[in-house]
Amino acid sequence: MEKELLLKYLKCETSQDEETLLSEWLDADPENQKELDAMQLMMEGLALYAPKIERMDMSTSTHSPKTTIFAKLSKISVAASILLIIAAGIGYFHFTNEIKSLSDQKTIVEVPDGQRINITLSDGTEVCLNAGSKLEYPSVFSGKQRRVSVSGEAMFDVKHDVEHPFVIETFACDVEVLGTKFNIEAEEVSKVFSVALMEGSIKLTSRLKEENPIIMKVNEEVELVNGHFQLGKILNHDEYLWPEGIISIHNIGFEELITKFQRIYNVQIEIKCKSIPKINYTRGKIRVSDGIDHALRVLQSASDFTYNKDPETGIITIL
């Protein structure tokens, strides 16, 4: 019997003629029923590992088709895994071994500018990915560690599991946790790296130099400065409200903030003033859902500049 037809049957997509053919096949040999039962068990088991992905709109701009593609990616990878198992014709007793092999199959979720995405991984760990960020993780966690990799900014709420530490790979270091909540930013191109710990404890092991691991405590943060990690206290928790759709203006330069606006709102902003404006106060918050024009008006209240927006291209020019 063709494996594709069995899959269609389990998905309730077979025609009456196909069901008649399957019925005759099942009656021909009791082993056929066992094969069908094993396939159903595998599909139900794999469904448990499919991560939940929820897209959260961060701006009023038109949704990028790329968002939908990546939001569906994990489901596609799990479905592909099911097909690979079926094509291999494995039986019930091989199911456990096949699940382990799925840990070698990676799913990649990339968040387009102007969006953020919430993901619940197979172990219950919750990840919020900021605009322009990327998360890579196995279809199924197996072995002694739960290992993922991150580029960009992400907020993790890791499911507690002492026997299986959660390890996050970045360009700068490995972050090992047992169960905790923290924010991580890792941009290899700009050499920006920071970790801020809200709950629990984590261990940082450098990938750049041979240094002693850093054990972080609650309300501490680590930043990469001139190739070395610096440990200190979190001075402003508002910086980590971005999963709630809030941008913090705190000790941030004008150009850095404009770059952040471009990524979060998925807009192009060109600075063409003679000198870079200064932000006159160090605290403030902007709600992303109010839109880019509101964000720029708030910034104008703290900085001396004007801007215009091209109605055709949407390009914003700072004057």
List the helices and strands and how they pair.
Layout lengths: L2 H8 L5 H13 L1 H20 L2 E6 L7 H7 L1 H16 L6 H7 L4 E5 L4 E6 L5 E4 L4 E5 L7 E12 L8 E4 L3 E5 L3 E7 L4 E8 L2 E5 L7 E3 L3 E6 L2 E6 L12 E3 L5 H12 L3 E3 L13 E3 L4 H9 L6 E3 L6 E3 L1
Parallel strand pairs: 6-7, 16-19
Antiparallel strand pairs: 1-3, 2-5, 3-4, 4-6, 5-6, 6-9, 7-8, 8-11, 9-10, 10-13, 11-12, 13-14, 15-17, 18-19
Helix pairs in contact: 2-3, 3-5
Produce a short descriptive summary.
It is built from eight helices and 19 strands.
Characterize the structure shown.
There is one protein chain. This protein is of the alpha+beta class and 319 residues long. Among the domains are: 1-104, no CATH class; 243-318, Phage tail protein beta-alpha-beta fold. Helix content is 29%, strand content 30%. The chain has helices at residues 3-10, 16-28, 30-49, 65-71, 73-88, 95-101, 254-265, 292-300, and strands at 52-57, 106-110, 115-120, 126-129, 134-138, 146-157, 166-169, 173-177, 181-187, 192-199, 202-206, 214-216, 220-225, 228-233, 246-248, 269-271, 285-287, 307-309, 316-318. Strands 1, 2, 3, 4, 5, 6, 7, 8, 9, 10, 11, 12, 13 and 14 form a 14-stranded mixed β-sheet that branches. The chain has a 3-stranded mixed β-sheet with strand order 16-19-18, with helices on one face. Strand 13 (220-225) and strand 14 (228-233) form a beta hairpin. Helix 2 (16-28) packs across helix 3 and helix 3 packs antiparallel against helix 5 (73-88). The longest helix is centred in the first third of the chain and has 20 residues, at 30-49. The protein is flat, with a radius of gyration of 24 Å. Mean pLDDT is 79; it is low at 60-99.
